[in-house]
Amino acid sequence: MDLSEYIRANPPQGFKPLPVFSRVGDQLRWYWSDDEGYADPIYHDGVHVGSLIRSFKTKEVVGVKVHGIIALVKERQPE
To answer: Do 42 and 16 form a contact (C-beta atoms < 8 A)?
Structure first.
């Protein structure tokens, strides 16, 4: 089955605003709107720590990306 056939056989089920962790990207992504958007980067002490996802239409925040999740969790583990 090629990709086109798969998509026709398995149409999208709609938008679900669930957070998603990417181990490969070491980031947590959470979109609470299905508006198309762009990343507005967030820096802390010169380090890119994440992005606000803003709607192209309204410029409102429709999601977030937080980078460095693995390190954040490790450094906050109880000893």
So the answer is: no
